[in-house]
Each structure stands twice: as C-alpha cells, then as structure tokens.
C-alpha cells in the first residue's frame, strides 16, 4: 500500500507539477521544477524499492527519510496558505502532522 501511495504521488509530480513547484522552499538552489521532478523521481524509486521484497527494508527507510525531507515544503505551504480559505488552510495545516504517521509507516515497512 505504501508503494502505491508513493508511486501515485511520484506520477503526479510529473503529470501535474505546478502545485508541487509552488511549495518548493525558496532557499533551495535552482528551479522549483527541477526539485519537483527530483522529488517525483525519488518517490517512484522508493515505491519500486518497497515493492521489491529484496529491497523493501531499504525502501522503508528511504520512505521515512523522504517523508521527513519533504516536511519543509509542507511548512512553506502552510505559511503561504495562512490567509486563504478555511478549507485550504485545513489542507495545508493538516499536512504537517500527517508527516509523523507517514514516517512511522516507512519505518514499519522497513522492520517487516
């Protein structure tokens, strides 16, 4: 299931990159689109690693690291959306604590 979540998100980074571009922290060098594609490719690679029993442990650890690594983008989204509609704020703020169970999910996959 985690591989499916990551694969779907990875594909979305390529199919609909604009929303992802907008949450790339400005402090990162280069183009936001480059980071969008890089993170999408990372999600696809981690999904493949989780789907393969021989690399599942490494994939789970990589997923936990990936979920922790994208946290600054979620913070940027929450800051950028602080003056938007209540629904958009709920989405943006809801993504912040969601990272914790996602990191734990990756670690659980790594332990199995």
Automatic annotation (TrEMBL):
One protein family per Pfam: DoxX_2
Keyword Transmembrane helix: yes
Subcellular location: Membrane
Location (main, coarse): membrane
Residue stretches spanning the membrane: none
Entry keyword NAD: no
Keyword field: Membrane, Transmembrane, Transmembrane helix
InterPro entries to which the protein is assigned, alphabetical: DoxX
Membrane topology: Multi-pass membrane protein
Superkingdom to which the source organism belongs: Bacteria
GO cellular component, one term: membrane
Coiled-coil ranges from the UniProt annotation: none
Protein name, UniProt field: DoxX family protein
């Amino acid at each position: 299931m985690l591989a499916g979540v990551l694969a779907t998100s990875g594909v979305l980074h390529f199919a609909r990159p604009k929303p992802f571009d907008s949450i790339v922290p400005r402090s990162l060098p280069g183009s936001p689109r480059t980071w969008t594609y890089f993170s999408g490719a990372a999600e696809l690679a981690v999904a493949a690693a989780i789907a393969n029993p021989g690399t599942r442990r490494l994939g789970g650890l990589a997923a936990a690291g990936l979920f922790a690594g994208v946290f600054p983008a979620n913070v940027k989204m929450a800051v950028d959306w602080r003056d938007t509609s209540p629904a958009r704020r709920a989405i943006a703020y809801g993504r912040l604590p969601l990272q914790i169970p996602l990191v734990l999910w990756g670690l659980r996959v790594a332990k199995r």
